[in-house]
Design a protein that fits this description.
heterodimer; A: alpha/beta; eight-stranded parallel β-barrel; 12 strands; about 35% helix; B: alpha/beta; Rossmann fold; eight-stranded mixed β-sheet; four-stranded mixed β-sheet; 14 strands; about 30% strand; globular
Chain lengths: ~250, ~200
Amino acid sequence: MLATRIIPCLDVDLGRVVKGIKFKDLDNVGDPVEMAKSYNEQGADELTFLDIGASYKSREILIEVLEKVSEQVFIPLTVGGGLRSSEDIRRALNSGADKVAICTSAIENPSLITEGAKIFGSQCIVLSIDAKRQGNSWYAYTHGGRNNSRIDAIKWAKKGENLGAGEILLNSIDKDGTKEGYDLELTAKISESVNIPVIASGGAGNPDQMVDAVKEGKADAVLLASLLHYGEYTIKDIKEHLEKKEICVRW
Amino acid sequence: MIAIIDYGAGNLRSVKKAFNHLKQDTIIADTPDDLNKADKVVLPGVGAFGSAIEKLRETGFYEATYDWLYENKPFLGICLGMQMLFEESLESEDTRGLGIFKGKCPRFKEGKVPQMGWNQINIIRESPLLEGIKDKSFFYFLHGYYVEATDTGTVIATTDYFINYTSMIQKENIFGVQFHPEKSGQAGLKMLSNWLEIC
């Protein structure tokens, strides 16, 4: 049976892993190469690296990090943050990433999804959507959650699939870092309207919420950051809990 | 020396890195002549069957690969590289595969497509490739089409994703795996080192 993936996410700025709450208040938590190795040993199913510095220098450092990680860790690696062209995507893939996550640049230039899928294959183009609720709708935000694109997040997910994205990384800005649980309503709506895998992100505070993300949110994978970074739970704890609730996990 | 065939489709780097981690010398073969330097060949690949076969033909690798296979020399097809060993894909009906194994490659009709993530293998028969690997072990899969092998004698493992399909095949020294051993953690590295031992 296909297992639900548990994906640690490392937000990296100038070569250090940081974690903020609601995209702000950054807190330095560790070395990305060491953390990647440790999560791999704990049983992570994939790893995601997001360059939140998104300066030229920060991205160069992340490329070096990817080189090092991919020589020692043999599970899928995704990298995102500041990738604007197919040349940027090529560099990221050549450094050892298997997939790239694109967010702002996909909204500003949707043909980047199509172009990337055509050159490198849909399987490596992850459409990252930072969504924020307004009334009964959710809007896709750009620039690390700062600007509202006014594009409906659900419509954007469908369009992204049609343009060639192979997966959706759905991050709730409202829930990010709060530990209140994932935005289940949004996750379910998007998961049901596309036929590509959806990764739920933002808000994980305990393993029960991950069970909800899978059962109610219909997520194919869950992304985790602070919960793991601060050692509140190990990946093993989480997988044991999910398995108890009859969710297939990989051992 | 292991030659990893580069016909311009897909990311070969991770395959190379996994073999280098296992202390193996590798070359990225970008012309068919490079295969002369090797004693083992890996055909990787993701994406579409038709365009991959076309690229194999354009680069001259189709014939070189066919000859290699015909001589029963050590070979491993990964993902699309396994599918191309079959006769045809329903994805591209006009395109003939390498035809070493009998069967076709239809598209998944149920579930999210592509299948992306860790799934289990059901071991059908013993193979040196499975030495030290338990039944129901997880490997990383990423594919929208699957193999429907007509000659069940070549099947060494299957996988379940809405249907039960072939995920590992063997004919003497020629092996094919639908998943990505280079991205399947310890189990994947173990399988690659088994393959190195056999050949």
